[in-house]
Design goal:
Length: 513
Amino acid sequence: MSSTSKEKLVIFDTTLRDGEQSPGASMTAEEKYEVALQLAKLNVDVIEAGFPISSVGDFESVRLIAREIKGPTICGLARAREGDIDRAWEAVQEAESPRIHTFIATSDIHMERKLKLSPEEVLESAVAAVRRARSYTDNVEFSPEDAVRTRFAFLVDVVKAVIDAGATTVNIPDTVGYALPWQFGRMISDLIERVNPPDGVVFSVHCHNDLGLATANSLAAVHAGARQVECTINGLGERAGNAALEEVVMAVRTRSGEFEVSTDLDTTQIISTSRLVQQVTGIRVQPNKAVVGVNAFAHEAGIHVHGVLADSSTYEIMDAQTVGLAESTIVLGKHSGMHAFRSKIEELGIDMDEADLVRAFHRFKTLADKKKHVSDEDVRTLAADEAHHVDKDAFQLEYLHVVGGAGIRPTATVQLVREGQVLSEARIGVGSVDAIYKTIAAMANVPHELIDYSVESVTGGTDALGAVTVKIGANRRVFSGRAANMDILEASARAYIHALNKVIYYVEHRGSE
Ligand code: KIV
Ligand code: ZN
């Protein structure tokens, strides 16, 4: 089928809502805005920007995205309750194209155990919610939560009723990741046949990955007639996550002969988007992750390398350039100036404001002085690192001195600045990082527990940038901090401060739910 006769597959990105529900993926409003900008560059159709009733901070970030981001539809999530729907509308109303997404659970187990409502009451709430949302906008999505474990006859009744009430998109979630591809595909085609929706109503799917089948289930549903897929960058999301946007989109593109649909995405933005989300959330994808893992286009075995050099399609089903892994044309070294650096940032598709760019350039010069070849990964890491350590951060690292070695008790002296005030402390630890963290914790006075600390080198060699990720628990949530530096002790300090600043931001903007 030629791409001109294909139907459109709507790509609904929920990285900022379901994705943000992954432990450790909490984002500040600025970070959410930055990701939303990149999603608009990727040309997704719908951005689910958050769950506005859930907190003041989430409301504000959805409203900011709705006001500022042009192109995609901006959607806010709401339970099937008046207050939720009113708040969602308040948050998205200024968008070029706003949408309200309302949901209520329809499976017996959820209705009986969680909602304590009868099926009749659930159906009534669903209809009332859609009507209320329709009083604000003609772009209304409804989801029967846990649809896959819902009695089919009841699901048909609910879907018919919400369409009659005005829902324009009906989303079928596999909330607990229980579906199998052939069953799910059959369920979607049976549902469409039984409901027989009027023109203009779109069937959507939202698959979780508990059995590793989210992408397969989403594609089976598209094959069966679904015309919207809800997905997240890097497959982030509750528990094992959601269907990964990059996998769904590249499957539809790479196996286009098997699908009656195509997407409008600019797939060359996939890598930049994936890297940005990794940087912002501190959640790295595994090296062998489909499409976006660092090994996704790497070849090791001699026989494969030989084949790829002769003709890349021997072992590559996708061209690396289609996902944005461009062949580098600009090589940076210690003689490169601002012009070359700026061009490299543009080549990599990174958006930076001038102040961040200048700071990243200075750090690049320091790095290039010490390191022969500065790789694209180094540049991406520096750029992201600068963009996330903005001046408004609560604490800034001013000074760090660490004494360590064999036979010495590791001691750290740290100076932090907060709102112009300089704080100094020193502490002994069981190791250098422990000493630094004890010192910072003593000054920050933010109740929390350290959950995880990891360091990885961005490229190989002892002169590589070290990227540190720290996860801390506070206010019953997990916050991650990340920083990169050639000195891993400095990166460790900055990553910890980054995570603590996120807790402070959260407490100040979201309350302590
Ligand atoms: O997984 C789910 O059921 C959801 C709904 C709110 C769509 O995230
Ligand atoms: Zn979900």
